[in-house]
DNA sequence: GAGCTCATATTGTTCAACAATCCTGCAATA
DNA sequence: TATTGCAGGATTGTTGAACAATATGAGCTC
């Protein structure tokens, strides 16, 4: 009986973690990176044969990898027609921002990971993005903005929320590619991040959360406007 | 050029929705239901051969279905050993509650779907659960509690948050099965739901959100205590 | 009881096959 | 010229066989 309890307790320790990704996971990793960095654009058709030949895996493995990307909304399967890199719609953009407006301000105001160190980390992230702006490095600014939001969400100290947020940020990359990677969607928001970090440094979590809600609504409106009037 | 814009606009309309689930999705649906309703218990090994023979699909299709369940955390793959129905650990329970504490109060306090009608719907859900308690229908109470929390999260009007919440609620089912489906984890929480709906009916969204945070922390502590001292 | 060997079960992945579906190009017709 | 119909080709969705690799369990010896 004692052996039973011990055996059961040990059973719950993830001693056999999947540290070695499966072939399908590896394929999905490669494709995800190509999608997120813009090499594979929205609407691009991913054929099992072509991808399988290029990456050196069988069709079954490719199908499994596709299923993973589809679950992450980075690709979409049209039955009998194929799998395509996802093309975010206005509805997607609205939902992405509804999601962000729920999560980010809540993490900022109530996240249990909030501390002076966390605020200092956010300050670093904002300062690094400022430096990229000085160097006219738009991609760096964009990356810094995403890191700011990722860091905010991580204040919740929830792996499940972190995973959702990674998916949201990946999809946001698709949205920005769709907008032609226009600096106008990244550079001006630095000042909004700066205002939020100032509130935090002044100890005003509620104010920061409210400012972030307003920021996200403005950003959404900006993107939707550009989608309708390109 | 006008044809091009029209073609592109039509392309964004999901005319080819995957209304017909694939074989793998169908298999995953069947297994998910069995896992959530407790027929397939935590730790149960799911062998490709056995499941494939039972449901009448090939091993490749079964593997795809497993991948979907694994992504939902309802199953876990141990390389070279097989796939098992997930067994939530204390760490999982903590993360589930961290996730819920972030999402549910935020949806309650800031969700754009909040309205008199929404409050009335929550009242219905609570009343239905009360009726189940009168009939000593523990499963009905448990289901009513979950419906309460699902309805709360839906106030965010975010498909991505809804999906996360469905996953969380499914995992919570696993947790409750692990606890022997003890009524003590369901029935007493009805009164907590009642208190929250009272705050909402009185127009006190912030108070309801704070009460929900406290409720979730208490529930977490209750479950963790039972896990360590069964 | 501990350690070793061998057989078996199962997994991870590939490949071939076939039915079904969709798309494209070409010919015929109005 | 524009439209329609059809055939062929490309691709998908799924199955089943095959093989290498890995883990587990049983049996045997010390």
Automatic annotation (TrEMBL), chains A, B:
Q: Example GO molecular function term?
A: DNA-binding transcription factor activity
Q: Which domain of life is it from?
A: Bacteria
Where do the HTH gntR-type domain residues begin and end?
A: 21-88
**Which UniProt keywords are given for this protein, alphabetically ordered?**
DNA-binding, Transcription, Transcription regulation
Name one matching Pfam family: FCD
Coiled-coil ranges per UniProt: none
Which InterPro entries does the UniProt entry name for this protein? GntR_C, TF_FadR/GntR_C, Tscrpt_reg_HTH_GntR, WH-like_DNA-bd_sf, WH_DNA-bd_sf
Q: Does the keyword section mention Transcription regulation? A: yes
- Give the matching Gene3D superfamilies: GntR ligand-binding domain-like (1.20.120.530), Winged helix-like DNA-binding domain superfamily/Winged helix DNA-binding domain (1.10.10.10)
Q: Which SMART domains match?
A: FCD, HTH_GNTR
Protein name per its UniProtKB record: DNA-binding GntR family transcriptional regulator
């Amino acid at each position: 009986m004692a052996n039973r309890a011990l055996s059961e307790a040990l059973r719950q320790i993830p001693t056999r973690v999947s540290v070695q990704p499966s072939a399908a996971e590896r394929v999905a990793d490669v494709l995800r990176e190509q999608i997120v960095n813009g090499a594979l654009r929205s609407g691009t058709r991913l054929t099992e044969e072509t991808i399988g030949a290029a990456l050196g895996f069988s069709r079954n493995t490719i199908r499994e990898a596709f299923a993973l990307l589809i679950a992450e909304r980075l690709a979409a399967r049209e039955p009998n027609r194929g799998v395509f890199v996802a093309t975010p719609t206005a509805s997607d953009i609205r939902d992405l921002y509804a999601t962000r407006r729920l999560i980010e301000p809540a993490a900022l105001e109530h996240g249990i990971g909030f501390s002076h160190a966390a605020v200092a980390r956010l300050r670093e992230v904002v300062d690094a993005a400022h430096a990229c702006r000085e160097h006219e490095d738009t991609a760096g600014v964009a990356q810094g903005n995403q890191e700011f939001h990722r860091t905010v969400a991580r204040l919740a100290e929830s792996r499940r929320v972190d995973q959702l947020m990674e998916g949201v940020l990946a999809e946001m990359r698709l949205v920005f590619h769709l907008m032609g990677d226009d600096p106008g969607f990244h550079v001006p928001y630095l000042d909004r991040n700066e205002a939020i970090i100032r509130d935090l440094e002044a100890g005003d979590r509620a104010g920061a959360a409210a400012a972030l809600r307003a920021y996200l609504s403005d950003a959404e409106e900006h993107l939707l406007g550009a989608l309708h009037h390109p």
